[in-house]
Amino acid sequence: MRRKRVLPLAALLLCTPALAGTAPAVAAPQTAPAAEPAAPPAGPLRILLTNDDGYNAPGIRKAFERLTAAGHDVTIVAPLTNQSGTGTKMLSGAPTISVKHPEPKVWAVDGTPGDSVAFGLAEVFAGEAPDLVVSGTNFGPNVAGLATHSGTVGGAVAALESGVPAIALSTGGLSAPDPVTTVNAMGPTLDFAVKLIDRLRVRARSGPLLPKGVGLNVNHPIVGADGKGTAAGVATTFQDPQNFLEPDFTDAGDGTWKVGVKVALKPAAKGGDIEAVAAGKIAVSPMNSDWNTGPADQAVTSALIAGLRP
After folding, report:
1. What do you get for the CA distance between the two ends of the chain, in Å?
2. Exposed/middle/buried for 110, CB within 10 Å: 0-12, 13-18, 19+?
3. Of 215, 54, 33, 61, which Cα lies nearest the Cα of 118?
4. How many CA atoms lie within 13 A of 76 on its CB side?
5. CA of 146: how far to CAs of 88, 187, 278, in Å?
6. What is the three-state SS of the chain?
7. How far apart are CA 69 and CA 19, in angstroms?
8. Predicted confidence pLDDT, tens digits, the chain (310 residues)
């Protein structure tokens, strides 16, 4: 399984009380790079907002309202329909793509989150890339192996591939709560997102919002019976290597198979995103858009192939 590079973002999260807490995706087809984003302005940001639940889903609409209320210039460019689980899929060979513009500041793309971001960067923000792409907030967590297949994370990855800073936002614990509870928990998720974006903007000053090629995968837990509780803290994490959703196939005897999913949660990796969310903390995991691992893994590979010849 792909190993994520954990970058030194703890200082970013820990230096003010507003974000204080404990500190301890998959590559898509390359697209033509968008215009290189300039240093972020001292004031509000120009934000491309996408998701995988669809352009009219509660999470993205609440995000639009909250980010706009915070003073940012927000434009939705998101899938026309629910695209959960599509991961980093994009530009899969269709000769045409349908795009609707149902209202000001809203574009609905009949494709994946990656398609939506690609269209947004190439057309909606043509010639002047947004300061930030925000993907979400999503129904349910995108931790561990779920993040690898998440359309929410995929939208953020598409932005990173084009050199635009990106944040993936998800709301949910490790169980399946009532949808109303999840919608309620989106409020605290977006309150935190506003604080995080403000932190990035203030700290960036004359530089980029995030290190080049680095995005953030943010998972906000559901706290309290109504979902409106306050998280226990903020943790800099990495993607737990386990995939706790296992496919369950049952032979129907007629050439078809019934497909289900089993939850098989294993012990959480110390310092990982599952551990943080299970403890009621907000997990913030740095991520990049490529498949590269670290020097140690390259050394192991070199040893494995030493002496081999074509």
Report:
1. 26
2. middle
3. 33
4. 34
5. 12, 22, 15
6. CCCCCCCCCHHHHHCCHHHCCCCCCCCCCCCCCCCCCCCCCCCCCEEEEECCCCCCCHHHHHHHHHHHHCCCEEEEEEECCCCCCCCCCCCCCCCCCCEEEEECCEEEECCCHHHHHHHHHHHHCCCCCCCEEEEEEEECCCCHHHHHHCHHHHHHHHHHHCCCCEEEEEECCCCCCCHHHHHHHHHHHHHHHHHHHHHHHHHHCCCCCCCCCEEEEEEECCCCCCCCCCCCCEEECECCCCCCEEEEEEECCCCCEEEEEEECCCCCCCCEHHHHHHCCCEEEEEEECCCCCCHHHHHHHHHHHCCCCC
7. 20
8. 333 333 344 444 443 334 544 333 333 333 444 444 555 556 789 999 999 889 999 999 999 999 999 999 999 999 988 888 777 888 766 778 899 999 999 999 998 999 999 999 999 999 899 999 999 998 889 998 888 888 899 999 999 999 999 999 999 988 877 889 999 999 999 999 999 999 998 888 767 889 888 999 999 999 999 999 999 999 999 999 998 888 899 999 999 999 988 888 899 999 999 999 999 999 999 999 887 777 787 888 889 888 888 8
Query: Token digits for 11?
Result: 């200082």
**303: amino acid identity, one letter:** A
- Give me 289's structure tokens: 């858009």
